[in-house]
Amino acid sequence: MASVFNLILEDFLSELEAIRLLVTTFDSAGKPPKSRVAAANSATLLVAATFEEFIRQCAREYARAVVVNSTSFSELPPKLAATAWKRSLEALSRVRFDVEQSVRDNLFITTKTRFSVVYEFAKGDLSQNIYDDLIHNQNNMRPQELNSMFKVAGLGDVCCKLADKAPIMTHFEEAEAGKAHGKILTALEEFMERRNIIAHALNPGFSTGTDQILKDLNMLTAVAASLCVTLDDLAPKSPAQSDVGGVGPVLPSQDET
Question: Is 88 a member of any domain?
């Protein structure tokens, strides 16, 4: 039986394969240059957004595992409840009430419900679903931001922890986890920098080439697979879950690209 992290990974990999097809289709001969540039740039932005959502989903499920397997509120990681409270109230503070009365009435209902969730959680009801507000990124998913997604639930420096996993070691052709870790940091930083150049139009003529996008897809596939192995290993489990165990990810061959 596949773990929740592997189910998230399967969805992520299928989305990356769809983007891979988009990129190779628009790179074919006969397509106007501007169309190829637009497709490549759109693909880069889509890859970044898809990766960020994948990380958020994994971080939410890791936090959920931590909470569900805690026997009391006092067992939670030190900053988890405070962060959930702070972020929930920040989200509520952004609700706009300058709308029609019928819409405003519904807003009062939803905001009351949303506050009740975090209020009951802070009182000790660990069954409350606080994870959407608890886990969200403030910035691009660079290594520091990625690490922060999991740190709130007590898992520190996840980029370092995934560096010794087979998909990453194979992708970067490294036998030492320390060197693989350095390459992860560099690759993610460079990918997000390319994403930002496109998103902010710092250079209107800039375009990520097809080869680079395919390399990015392979790199993110390796990062994602290694992350899921790491989370399967480290996420708290009930006795029943421990007996089942996780199913290793099946990755597309890089030869296909």
Answer: no
Weakly modelled stretches of the chain, pLDDT under 70? 1, 29-30, 202-206, 239-257
In this predicted structure, what is the pLDDT of residue 4?
Answer: 96
pLDDT confidence of residue 187 = 98
Write down the number of H helices and E strands in the chain: 11, 0
pLDDT for 37 equals 79
pLDDT given at position 251: 58
Supply the pLDDT for residue 257: 47
CA angle 119, 125, 129 (to 5 degrees): 75
pLDDT of residue 247: 46
Q: How far apart are CA 132 and CA 172, in angstroms?
A: 33
pLDDT of residue 55: 98
Question: Is 53 domain-assigned?
Answer: yes
Q: Which structural domain range is residue 39 located in?
A: 4-72+138-256
Query: Is residue 115 in some structural domain?
Result: no
CA–CA dist 11, 24 (Å, integer): 20
Query: Contact, 23 vs 213, CB < 8 A?
Result: yes
Contact 176, 134 (CB under 8 A): no
Look-up of token digits 């560099």 = 186
Structure-token pair, residue 92? 């509520």
User: Could you tell me which of 186, 161, 183, 162 has the C-alpha nearest to residue 174?
Assistant: 183
Q: How many domains does the chain have?
A: 1
Q: What is the pLDDT of residue 48?
A: 97
Q: Which of 228, 219, 217 is nearest to 250 (CA)?
A: 228
Domain-embedded: residue 164: yes
Q: Name residue 218's amino acid.
A: N
Give ∠ CA 46-208-146 in degrees, rounded to 5. 50
